[in-house]
Amino acid sequence: MSRTLGAGFIGFAITLSLGCGDKDHDHEHTGDSDAADADTDTDSDTDADTDTDTDADADADFDLTFNGGLYDPPHEGNLVGFALVDDADQTTTHFTSTVSGGNISASWPAAITEGHSYTLYWYADLDQSGACTPPGADHGWSEAIPSVAGQVDVQRDHSGAFEYDVCNYF
Predict the structure, then answer these.
(1) pTM of the prediction?
(2) Is residue 51 classed exposed, middle or buried when 0-12, 13-18 and 19+ CB atoms within 10 A define those classes?
(3) What CATH architecture applies to the domain 2-10+61-169?
(4) Domain limits of the chain?
C-alpha cells in the first residue's frame, strides 16, 4: 500500500547478537524449542526450525519519499533539512537533501513504522547559514503523516505559506 501526502538519506541499523542464539541454553545449536523461549510467531517451532517467518507481533517499517517542485528561484542549490518527528514520543530523525533543478526528491528506506503517526518538517536554507533560521531568513513547511499503513509519498511543491515553528525541530 502506498499513500501520497504532499532528500536523500539512507539509514542503517546494525544488530549485534552474542552467543549461539540458543535461548533455552541446552546447547543444541540447531534451533530452539518453544518450551523455554518467548517466541510469539505463528509457526510450530521445532529444534530444526530456522524461524524465517515474520513474527505476527512485529511492527513493519516502510519507506518515506518526498518530492516537490517550484523551489527555484530562490532555492536552487540550497540545503534542505528534514526532521521526521514521531508524534507519540517526539523521537526526531534528521535528513538532508539539496534543491536541484528547482526540485527536491528524496527517499528514506524503512524510516516510518506501521501504526505510528509523524510530522515531517523541512526548511530550505535560503540564508545559507547551514542551520534553520526562522522564516524570513529561511523558508519552512510541515506535513502531517497520519497512522502509517504502508509506504508514504509526500508531494509538496514550494509555497509562500511559511511555518514559523519549523526551526524548533532542528
Answers:
(1) 0.66
(2) middle
(3) Sandwich (2.60)
(4) 2-10+61-169
